[in-house]
Write a structure and sequence with these properties.
DUF7555; membrane; transmembrane helix; globular; mainly alpha; transmembrane
């Protein structure tokens, strides 16, 4: 779960930085950044929902398909993106050993948590800070 929270925090931080820079460049300030975060959050939410949706009813019966692991506990995608490698080097994830492959949340699930974090930041900018 630590890896998912670190991933969600990284997605939210990068999205927020990009939205603030875009808002300042276009002259909209933080209110435009809040709007960009809102749309980015919902686009990510839709994308990850479609990635997490089972392809067929048999996917729900297969435990390996649910965990994102196939065969002898080897992840479906062995390669790691640069972003995933960056997140793996961030604290607190780097302080803990990696869980076994069958206990890991797949990348689409981590991105789902990231989209919720982006939407939370957009909400907090409006409700808590009055932007």
């Amino acid at each position: 779960m630590i890896d998912a929270l670190t991933y969600a925090g990284a997605v939210a931080a990068i999205s927020t930085i990009c939205a603030v820079v875009l808002g300042l460049i276009t002259g909209g300030g933080l209110s435009r950044a809040k709007l960009v975060l809102f749309f980015v959050g919902f686009i990510l939410l839709g994308y990850t929902t479609s990635r997490l949706w089972p392809r067929s009813p048999s996917d729900l019966e297969d435990e390996a398909a649910l965990s994102g692991v196939s065969g002898d506990s080897i992840p479906e995608t062995a390669d790691q993106t640069r972003f995933q490698a960056l997140v793996a080097s961030l604290p607190p994830k780097r302080w803990f050993p990696a869980p076994p492959p069958e206990d890991r949340i797949n990348p689409a699930g981590k991105l789902f948590f990231g989209s919720l974090a982006v939407l939370l930041i957009s909400y907090l900018m409006e409700a808590a800070f009055g932007i």
